[in-house]
C-alpha cells in the first residue's frame, strides 16, 4: 500500500533536520509527491474540517512565481529542491463539511442521529465564526499536515526544509488562489540532500525549559 | 536512547486515529511523558524560535482546572485519559533567542560571522513584529510539535485525541500563564485506548481534492 523506503520511526522523526541544499539531479515523480501528500492528510484536524490545501510547485514556471515573493535567503532551496510544496489554510473548508458527513452516513458508518448531532453541533460554530478563528483553525490544521508531510518525505527517502521566509501577502495571489479565502501557512522544499552540503543541526532548548506539570 | 515500543513508521503515522475513551487504569509515568515531549520538540520552527510551551495536566487538581473551560463534549477524554497536554504558543519566544544562538556559537558550531548574521537578520523581524505575526508563528510552531507529540505517543504505545473544543480565552489564565504572552493552540488527551471503545475512523477527502501542481 505504501512505498516507504525508510520505515524506522526513530530514524524518520529524530533524524529529520532541515536541508537547504539539495541534489539537483533528483526529480521526484508527481505520483510519489501525491502519495506523500496522501500520507500527510491522515493528520487530524479540528472537527475533521481538513482545512488544508497543497500546491506542489515542480516546474520552472511555477518556481518563477515563487521567486517573485520568496526572501533571498531561501532561494538556494528554491533553486536546488525537486519541488516546493506551498501549504495554505482553507478558511472556507466548512462549506464542504456537510457533504463529507452525509457521505459517511451514506456509507452507514454513523447513524442519522449522529449525523444530525455532528452537523448541528459543529457546523454552526464555523458558519458563525469570525475570520480570526477560521484563520487560526486553518493554520493549525495545515501545520499538523505539514509536519506529517515532512516525516512522510523522509519515509520516502527524501529531505525537507520548511520555509516561513516569504512575502505572505503575495503568496496566494501569485499562485492563483483567492487571498481572502486561502491563508499561507508555510513552504516546504523537498528533495534529496546534497551530499556535499554541511547544514548545521539546530540546537533545541532542554525539555525542562518548555514543560511543566500540573 | 529512546524507549519506543512501536518503531514501525507506517503503523505509527497511518494507524493513528483519535481515541475518545481511554483505559482509566493506565497511568503514564511523568518521566515517560517528558520523553514524549522531548521527542516532539525535535520539530522544526520558524527561525528555530521554538515558540511552544507544554503544560502536562495529570493530577485531579489540574484536571479540575481544565473542567472549568472544557466543552462538555470533551469531558470523556478528560475523565479517562492519563494526562491532557495543553499546548500554548509563546509569543515572546524571541526573547530567549539571543542566548540560544550565543550558546551555539560558544559550542563552536557556528562562526562569529554566522552568529552576527543570524541575530541581525532574524531577531529584528521578531522584535519589530506585530502581535498577529507573533501569534501566527507561535501557533504554527506549536502545531508542528503537537503532531510530533501525537506520533511519539504512539511510538511509546499510547493513543491521543487532539482537542480544540474549549474556551480558549480562559485557558492560559486557568493554568497560571500570562494570557497576553501565551496563546492556546490545542489540548491533547493521551493514554491507552479503552479496548471496549468503538471510535469511528474519520474519513478524509481524496488527495485529488486538496492538491494541485504548478
UniProtKB/TrEMBL annotation, chains A, B:
Pfam families: Nitroreductase (PF00881). One of its GO terms (molecular function) is oxidoreductase activity. Residues 15-192 form the Nitroreductase domain. It comes from the Bacteria. The keyword Membrane does not apply. InterPro entries: Nitroreductase, Nitroreductase-like. Belongs to the nitroreductase family. This is NAD(P)H-dependent quinone reductase. It comes from Ligilactobacillus salivarius (strain UCC118) (Lactobacillus salivarius). The lineage of its organism: Bacteria, Bacillati, Bacillota, Bacilli, Lactobacillales.
